[in-house]
Every structure is written in C-alpha cells, then in structure tokens.
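User: Hi! I'm working on a homework problem where we have to compare a predicted structure to a textbook description. Could you give me the structure for the chain below?
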Amino acid sequence: LISAPQVADLSFNLLRSVAPLDDASPTSAYHYPHLTHLYLIQNKLTQIQGVRDRTSLTYLEYGGNRIRVST
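Assistant: Happy to help. Predicted structure tokens:
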C-alpha cells in the first residue's frame, strides 16, 4: 500500500503558478491530505498559492521567487 506524500519539492522548475494545489478536495488530482512540507524555492511565482485548506502543512518555503510585499 502506497501512502499519500508528506513532502512535495517543486523547487527550481520555473513555475509561474501553483494555483492547482489550492484544490485539496478529495476528488482533486492534488489531494494530499498528509502534506506537511511544501518547497517552492527558486521558481517564478509572484503570489502565495497552493496552501489554502492545507491544514496539515507545517513548513512552507517560497524563497527566491518574485513575491513582493506592497506597503
């Protein structure tokens, strides 16, 4: 029996969006109910996505992207 992944490393892939990861519904291809670590380092992301309803997530790494905070 293969268990659901707990770690997803999508770093260094030149991703511009990870919005599909926001769909954590049981019928989604991105349903990872036990995901605890998500690495999205060095992509081309401009906003934080992929974490909505990820209640098991304890570590998120978005470093090296194009996310800016406006003040």
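For your comparison, note the following. The radius of gyration is 12 Å. Residues 22 and 57 are 12 Å apart (CA to CA). Good luck with the assignment!
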